[in-house]
Each structure stands twice: as C-alpha cells, then as structure tokens.
Specification:
Largest sheet of chain A: 9 strands, mixed
Number of helices of chain B: 6
Shape of chain A: globular
CATH class of the largest domain in chain B: Alpha Beta
Strand order of the largest sheet of chain A: 1-2-4-3-5-9-7-8-10
CATH superfamily of the largest domain in chain B: Zn peptidases
CATH architecture of the largest domain in chain B: 3-Layer(aba) Sandwich
Distance between the termini of chain B: 49 Å
Radius of gyration of chain A: 20 Å
Bound molecules: zinc ion
Number of strands of chain B: 17
Shape of chain B: globular
Strand content of chain B: 25-35%
Helix content of chain A: 10-25%
CATH architecture of the largest domain in chain A: 3-Layer(aba) Sandwich
Largest interface: A-B, 40 and 39 residues
Number of domains of chain B: 2
CATH topology of the largest domain in chain A: Aminopeptidase
Helix content of chain B: 10-25%
CATH topology of the largest domain in chain B: Aminopeptidase
Oligomer: heterodimer
Chain lengths: 308, 318
C-alpha cells in the first residue's frame, strides 16, 4: 500500500486540506474508488475504510493481479466533514457539481480539477454516492444514461439492483458523468444510509466491489458472504412512487426491503399537535420497498416511498 | 389611495409545511381599474429566488410606490413577486431551507415531483406567456456587481434590444452551458417568454442608488411595452459585451484577507492594482492582484475572506 497526498489546498487559518489516496498494486490504472465528496457522507467514507482494510490484506496475500493498480480516496471534502457541513465551508458549493473542474477557477472548481486530473485515466471508476432525498435505499448500483454506461459490468457487483436513470442538465457536472465522458466505466454505489454508519451494508458493498474486481481480472480472491444477486436492471421510471398530500409527523409502517401487497399500509402521517392520523400511505401495487423517507417530519407532496 | 388602479394580492402556490404553516408564494397584480384602458400587456417582476439577495426587495417596493403615485398612467398589468423563496429570505438562507438546494437549479420543475419541483412548476405556469419577465438578482454575499443584465447567447437577438431599455450599465452576453438549463430564465426563454436576468449590488444589502436606477429602467421598459404612459427618465446606453474572451476573471492566488485597492466601475490601466491579499497573523502581503490589461472593473469582492481560487473581481476588456 502506498499512501499519498493527491491534492492539497492551503488556507489562512486552518491546516492545509489534504486529499489522501491509498494505492494498491502496481501498473495499469485499473480502478479508482472515491468515498465522500460531501461533508455529510460519513457512510461513504466508512465504506472506503473497510475497503482499504480489505485491500491491505489482499495485497499482503498477493491477491492483486500483477500489473493492476487500485486507488482509493476515502474523503475529498475533509474541511466540510470536520465542521459538520454538507457543502464547501465558505461558499456552500458542491464539489460534485464542479467536474471536470477548472484549475484557474473558483476554489471547488480547483479541487475538482485537482482530483479529476489524478483519477480520470482509470479504467473503472466507483463512487460511493448520496442522494439529495433524505431517506434509506436498498443497496444498488446507479448509472446515468450517457451512451457510455456499462450495464454488464454493473451486474458484476451482484447487488440486488442496477438502476439506469436519465441524465438531467445539472448532472453534467457530476463526477460520475464526467468519468463516463472521459471513457472511464463509472458506477455509483448506494448503500443504505448517508449520515449514519450502517456497518452491514458497508461490508456488503465492499464484498460487492471485491466480487466485481475478481470478475474483471483485477483481483483473484474468494469472497465469503455478500449479496450474490442476479441484479435486476431497472430504469428510474420502473419505480413506483408513493407521494403524500399532507404534511406532519411521518412514521414508516414497513421496513426497507419488505415485500408488500397492494393496499398494505406503508406509512402514516399524523397531526403534529393532536396526533390524529392525517393520511395513510398504502401500496398502490404489490412490490418491494426500495426507498423510504426517514426524517420524522415530512412536507406535503413528497415522495415518501418507492416500490419496485 | 386612488381608485384608478386595482392591486390584487394572491397566492401563486401553496404547500403545507409540517407544523401549522403553509409555504405561500405571493403576487401583487397591479392593473388599471378601467378595463378599457388596459392593453393587457403584462410585465412580471420576480425576485428573491436566492434568499440572501435583497436588492430586489427595495426595487419591488419602489416600483409599486411609483405606480401608485401616478395611477392613471398604468395601461397594462404589472405582476410583482417579491419573494420566490420566502423561507430562504426569512432565514437568511440562499437556497431552499430544509433541502439545501439552489432554487435556480430546479426549473422547469414538475407537477408530480417533490415539493420544490412542484413549486418550480407552478412558477413556470404562472409566468409563462408574459410579455416580459425580469428576474432580479443581487450577486451573492461575496461580490458587488454593477447593475447588469446577463443574457444566454442563445437569446441574444431577442433579449439585447429589451435589455437596452433597462437603464443598466452593462449587458453581458455569455456562452450557454448545460448547467444553466435548470434556471428560471432558461426555462421561460425556451418557452418563448422573454426573460431578463438582472444582477445588481451585493447580497444581504440594499444599495439604494442601484435600486432606483433599476426602477427607472423598469418604468422605461414598461413604457416601451405600452404598460406605462407616464413620464420616464432618460436611460443610459449599456456597454454590451458578447465576445467570448471579453471578460478577465481575477481569482485569489492565495487564501487570506482581500483588501480592495481599485474602485468599482472604474477604468483600470494595465498594471493597476485591483487589491492585495494579506495575512493578519504575520502582517505580510501574500499576493498583489494587478490587471494584465486595461478595462473596466465591473465586479469587485465585497466579502474579505478568500480561499485559494475565490473570485475577487471581473474586468471588462476595452
Ligand atoms: Zn441570485
């Protein structure tokens, strides 16, 4: 393992922000894994550290195929993470909206450019991502439809689901999109949580990556446990959204991943003062709970649940 | 108040919040009481999409005040929307509080989307079809801008002639980019509703002189559109910039405290100093920012703290 500083930014009063990379194996730039780009992506960083632990061990056992190198960046935005902020401390910009970056531009454009310069030539790019919707997801691999997306490789993670979604205008500045444009096969890995640690889904994600790297001829190891699904490939439109009319206190009545029947109660919204039920969200069809709202309060017209 | 004018306040949209409150976006519609003197031409004044940009607040107030002062001169519809992001304005938050989302990156929205998308959809529905929409921004808390209109090059032919009526100092025709496709102005312009984006002043402040300059421009534009028959002041001829390399950006080479040396909207010669970046701990000058060529400084940094890369000024090449 080779630990190195990928990018450094000097500040007036804080210590320089250093983006640390961990390199395993030697040779062709095979895989790059990026953990948190935002200050609240704790689970993403945690999953990376589990991956680093695993890769250290695999490297000692000579299980990295010769001539292949793997780079892991557990945390890019350390400044925001240290102050409990999601976006960039001074101007609240999102590093994941700044790719491919510009090294003579604004601060977060420079950070994006500095990182991208190092990671753009890898054959495979994996990002532990998070959604702006606050909630829990079933673990899945997500990719944008750019024409470069590689569904077959995505299935090698053996995650329960692979989701392909349409590109929207603001996606063109994300890491995943730019990796694809630079002809890196890019995958966003979603584990269950963002700002809380879920050790089980982190461990499963690490196994999924190991599985994929074995099938891609980058590792030769044996993976115990993990998912081993024959991934279902879905488009965003295949998910059935259950939206609420009312606002108030929100309570889930089923678990993420649970199989539900048409008409089954999924969640309830109650009056914040008097506690009476304002709305019951029921399953519009049979399915599996893929996404659920997590916060204790909910706004009206929010997609609270998605079913597969 | 005069009877010659109707002022109707209504809600453009309404969304329930969790605890005993609804989010409402309000509109004041001013129109002549006598429908015979209404041309039915409509101008929409929009502001407060970014909750920390407040120059538009005074513009809305002053515009309504001037219309009421001379009500018989009104011959069309003036719709005023002072707070597109009311929760943001109320909580000193640039984006939409609770979502950490830039409201100007969610258009055109969707009827069945999240609350924010639904709000965006209702706003587009509301503004579409107006003869002119003016979306007033105030830069951000970091930079002061000379009153200017920013136009996507795709709309140069339609919008530059309209912008000339607006009494701004500067019109910046910039390259189009995919990211900007999610803005209110892009959505409306692509639906054939001409929309001008004004940037003037600085966030969290009211610069009265700039606001009055914009109100003069709005009155003049209303007259051009046939919405206003009263006296208007002569407007200034803006500098129009549409070269691809017409603007020089100054980004801080070092983190520190930016101390401006040049005055805003002045002509600088090659080698003139824009400002210094200093270190209050050591007493050192960390960097001197000088212009590589002559031009007019139309943006200058207001907020002193800079990171490496922070924008400290923009120069229009002349
Ligand atoms: Zn703005």
């Amino acid at each position: 393992m080779n630990r190195k500083i990928i990018y450094e930014l000097n500040a007036l009063y804080r210590e320089p922000m250093q983006v640390t990379g961990y390199e395993f194996g030697e040779g062709e730039k095979s895989v790059c894994v990026v953990g948190s780009l935002r200050g609240n992506e704790i689970q993403q960083m945690f999953t990376c550290n589990k991956l680093i632990q695993r890769l250290k061990k695999l490297e000692q056992q000579n299980r990295i195929v010769e001539g292949k190198s793997i780079l892991v960046l557990p945390c890019v935005n350390t400044y925001s993470m240290n102050i409990g902020k999601r976006f960039w401390p001074t101007d609240n910009t999102d590093i994941n909206r700044m790719f491919p970056g510009y090294n003579e531009g604004e601060t977060t454009q420079r950070i994006a450019a500095g990182i991208f310069e190092v990671i753009k030539d890898y054959g495979i790019g994996i990002q532990f991502a998070s959604n702006y919707m606050s909630g829990r997801f079933l673990p899945h691999i997500r990719m944008m439809q750019t024409g470069f997306e590689d569904i077959e490789t995505a299935k090698k993670f053996e995650f329960p689901y692979v989701i392909r979604r349409n590109t929207r205008p603001f996606d063109t500045t994300t890491l995943n999109y730019n990796w694809q444009i630079w002809e890196t096969r890019a995958f966003s890995v979603y584990t269950t949580d963002t700002d809380e640690i879920d050790a089980k889904s982190a461990a499963d994600a690490v196994k999924g990556i190991e599985q994929m790297l074995n099938k891609e001829g980058i590792l030769h190891s044996s993976v115990n446990g993990g998912y081993h699904y024959n991934s279902r490939v879905l488009c965003d439109d295949n998910l059935l959204s259950v939206r609420c009319r009312e606002a108030g206190i929100y309570e889930n009545k089923v678990d993420i991943g649970e199989e539900v029947c048409k008409g089954q109660l999924l969640a309830e919204i109650t009056d914040p003062y008097e506690g009476m039920v304002l709305e019951q969200l029921v399953a519009p069809a049979d399915g599996t709970v893929f996404f659920q709202h997590k916060a204790p309060l909910i706004y009206a017209s929010t997609t609270a649940i998605k079913l597969v | 108040m005069s009877q010659e004018i109707i002022s109707q306040i209504s809600d453009v949209c309404q969304v329930k919040l969790p605890i005993g409150e609804s989010l409402k976006i309000k509109r004041n519609r001013l129109l002549p009481a006598d429908s015979a003197s209404n041309t039915n031409k409509r101008i929409c004044i929009v502001t407060g999409i970014h909750g920390d940009e407040l120059e538009g607040q005074y513009v809305c107030y002053e515009l309504i005040r001037r219309i009421r002062e001379n009500p018989e001169a009104l011959t069309g519809i003036v719709d005023v929307y002072p707070a597109m992001n009311p929760m943001g304005i109320d909580s000193v938050t640039r984006g939409i509080p609770g979502f950490d989302l830039d409201m100007n990156r969610i258009f055109p929205g969707s009827k069945d989307g999240a609350m924010t998308e639904y709000v965006a959809y209702k706003i587009i529905e509301e503004l579409s079809g107006a003869d002119l929409v003016v979306d007033i921004h105030a830069s951000n808390i970091y930079l002061t801008e000379i009153p200017q209109i920013r136009i996507n090059e795709l709309n140069e032919d339609t919008l530059v002639p309209l912008a000339r009526h607006m009494n701004v100092d500067f019109v910046w025709v910039h390259a189009s980019s995919t990211v900007l496709e999610s803005t209110l102005a892009y959505s409306l312009n692509s639906r054939a509703t001409p929309t001008l984006v004004v940037e003037a002043g600085v966030g969290m402040r009211i610069t009265k002189g700039y606001c009055e300059q914009l109100v003069d421009g709005l009155m003049n534009t209303m007259k051009e559109l046939g919405i206003w028959q009263g006296e208007v002041k002569p407007v200034r001829e803006p500098l129009v910039e549409n070269r691809t390399d017409g603007v020089v950006f100054f980004n801080a080479p070092k983190a520190g405290i930016f101390v401006p040396a040049a005055k805003h909207w002045t002509r600088l010669e090659k080698g003139d100093r824009v400002g210094n970046i200093v270190n209050p701990l050591t007493g050192d000058i960390l960097a001197e920012i000088v212009t590589p060529e002559k031009g007019i400084l139309f943006t200058i940094r207001e907020y002193p703290i800079v990171d490496e890369g922070s924008l400290v000024g923009r120069l229009l090449r002349i």
